[in-house]
Each structure stands twice: as C-alpha cells, then as structure tokens.
Amino acid sequence: MLQELKSKGIIQDISHQADLENVLKNNSTTLYCGFDPTSDSLHVGSLLPLTTLMKFSKSGHKLIVLIGTATGMIGDPSGKSTERSLLAEEEILKNANLIEKQVSSIFTNAGINKDSYQFVRNHEWLEKISLIDFLREIGKHFSVNQMIARDSVKTRLTEREQGISYTEFSYMMLQAYDFHYLYKNLNCITQIGGSDQWGNITSGLDLIRRLEPNGTQPFGLTIPLLLNSSGKKFGKTESGNVWLNSSKTSVFEFRKFWQNTSDDDVIKLIKLFTNATESEVKELETSLSKNPEARIPQNYLADQLTILVHGESANTEAIKTSSALFSNTDSIPSLEQLLSIKSEIPTIELTLKDLIGINIQDLLVKTQACTSKSSARKLIEGGGVYLNNQKVKNISLEISNSDLIEDKAVLIRTGKKSYFLVLVS
User: Fold this and answer.
1) What is the pLDDT along the chain (425 residues), one digit of tens a residue?
2) Angstrom distance (rounded) from CA 183 to CA 185
C-alpha cells in the first residue's frame, strides 16, 4: 500500500517503511492527523491529508481526526514567517465544531463508515496536566539543541526582528505529547501530516520510544507540500485560499478552481486526490494528449472533488449554473446561481429606485461594461448585448420590474463571455 501511495506522489517522508508496510498488511491499525481550528473552515491545503486518511480507511484501518483546541490557542510556527494571532477560546471552540461537521460531511460523501473514525480534542488531556508535571515528565526528554535545528524553528531564529516566542517554540512538545497520548490511550501508532510537520512528528516518535521503551513501534509519514507546475503554492488564487466551506468559497468557485487546473498539473492531482485506477488514469492521459480542448481530465477532477466536499446535488447545481451562464444559451439563471458567482464577475449594487427606469446604455456604462454611451449604443446595434441572456435589440430599453431576476438582480452580458451583475441593494 505504501509503495502505491509513494508511486502516486502522496507520501514524501516515512519512518520505518518496511515495518509499517508489514503492520498495515497484517493488522487493522489506527492512524491520526491533526488540524488546528484557527479558522472556521479547512481549505484545499487540508484536503490531501483527508483524502490520504480515507485511503487507509478503505483498507480497513481506523482513523482519528484530532482537533487542536489546545494547540490552536498556541500557534504552530511550521511554515510561518511570523507569529500567528492568538484566538479567543470561544472562537477556537466554535471553529472546532464547524470543522468537525465539515470533515464528517466529507467522510460521509466518501462512504466512510462512522464507526471507522472518531474526533478528539487535545484540550481534553492537555488542560489536565500541570506545568510542573509537563516540564518534569515531558520537557526533560526534549533537547533544545535538537529543537532549534528543526526547520520550523531555525528559519524563525534567523529573523532577528520577528524571532520566535517561547509560546510557539513549545508547540512541538505539545504535538509530541498528543501523539503519545493517542498511542497510549487509543492504540494509535501512526501520525500523518504535511511535509512541514516532519520535525513535530519525529519528536513524537522519539518521545513515545522514551516513555514506552517496550511498546509497539510508532510510525510517521508526511504528505508533500503541493506546488503547481509554475512553482507556486497550490490552493491559492488571487483572492486568497480556496476554502471547503461554501459560504467562504462557493461551490461554483470551488468546482471552477479544479476545472482551471493546467494540463501540466491535472494528471498529478488526479493521482493525488482521487481513487482513479491505473487504467482510468491512462485513459484520462490519452484524452488529454488527443483532445486537450475538451478538458476531460479537468472535468473529472472537478466532479470528483466537488462531490466529495459538497455532495452530488451541489456539484450538479454548479454544473447547471455554469451551463446557464457560460454556455451561450437563452436560459435565465436563478438568483441563487447568480449569488454563487458574484465574486467571479464584476458586481455592483444599486437601489431599486436607481435601477428601475435606467436606460440600458447608462446601465452598461455604470457597470463598466462599456466606457461610454456611444460605445454602448454601437454594441447594442451590433447585437452584442444581452440582458438576462436575452439579446437587447432596443437602444432605448429601460429596466423595469419585469427585468429583475427574483426582484433582486439583473445580469448583463457583452459578447460571448463578459458578464456583469447588478444587485438590488
């Protein structure tokens, strides 16, 4: 199993690979991955650890999803050039509830049985240990020399202006203690994390060996930091993170993100994120080489991951929205469809008083679809202006209540693909 995951590029670092391979082959084991609730949603950077966990679950192994309700209040320095802003406990707990709900939904969409995974929160054990006990029983096993050699700490130590606080410096000890707690109390022998977590994971392995010298061998593996073919960090757009919560990144935007995957990256991402078989991957590679314009692999990737994160019906609705807006049909989109893409197209708000009765030429200028009334007139006369996907033939047209989509919006299109949305404020 590990060889297969490595061949697909899913695993970067792994401890005691041969031993872990043997354990996985002959036993049902328990693995965990942790997520700090520093936001009310995970983003696509968290999706690969989740899909990797699912692959182990499909092979009969148990999963633990640790929500860092304690470590989230400290802040992990890994991959960060500056210190995180500390969140209030109430916000941490609110975020934790939302993330658990989000992960549960994704696991359900993937067909993961609820009996095969569980959530834990690390404040349940970390808040019970006193500072003195922690330093005596745990801290004595950590060498400061080794801690400052970790990449997550070393890079911050070289930044004289920022540096690293003792708060963040202690993070790896807390994460190591998490691993030991799960190992001892829930029989969890393997931790999964991003490549920036390797130092924290190996600290946990070392702590377990010191505290449980006669125990079962623990293991750790990491998933690579994803970069696209141009070397940029995966999961970022010009507007920021691509979130798994539809209120932060709409289903339409989420699906479009995967559809926009470059030809150079798409097969790699299919191998990483989906359960496509070797023959299916070869078929998709063939379609990419023979008919790249059809973007069959991109649509496959978009379908698979949108269904996984948001469900079948949401994916279907996103396809309908795309078709209604971008397929050059005469269908009128719904208000829900328009609101789902308002961040994707130029959008303005007007009061009902300002919108009703406005001449179409003035509206084209106000939305910046045209630079002047004269250019608007020429565009209309040339048949290049559409109101709610209906061609505008009258240069004197004035917007009326009957032109409003569900009394709240007007959609303007110029040419084949330039859309402008007007919402009633």
Assistant:
1) 888 898 899 999 999 999 999 999 888 999 999 999 999 999 998 999 999 999 999 999 999 999 999 998 887 665 555 555 678 899 999 999 999 999 999 999 999 999 999 999 999 999 999 999 999 999 999 888 888 877 767 777 776 566 778 888 888 899 999 999 999 999 999 999 999 899 899 999 999 999 999 999 999 999 998 876 667 777 666 557 889 998 888 888 899 899 989 999 999 999 999 999 999 999 999 999 999 999 999 999 999 999 999 999 999 988 887 776 666 566 777 888 788 777 667 888 999 988 999 999 999 998 888 888 999 999 999 988 988 888 888 888 998 899 898 989 888 888 877 788 899 88
2) 6
CATH 1.10.240.10 fits 226-327, yes or no: yes
Domain ranges of the chain: 2-225, 226-327, 335-425
Separation between Cα atoms, residue 1 and residue 384, nearest integer Å? 56
What is the token pair recorded at 168? Answer: 């963040």
167 exposed, middle or buried (CB, 10 Å; 0-12, 13-18, 19+)?
A: middle
**What CATH superfamily classification does 2-225 receive?**
HUPs (3.40.50.620)
CATH superfamily of 335-425: RNA-binding S4 domain (3.10.290.10)
Burial 81-116 (b: 16+ CB within 10 A, else e): eeeeeebeeebbbebbebbbebbeebbebbebeeeb
Lookup: tokens for 317: 């609705």
Please state the pTM of the whole predicted model.
0.79
Pairing of strands 62-67, 30-35: parallel
Going by C-alpha positions, the residue among 67, 1, 65, 57 that lies closest to residue 29 is 57
Count the residues in the chain: 425
Distance between CA atoms of 352 and 360, rounded to whole angstroms? 15
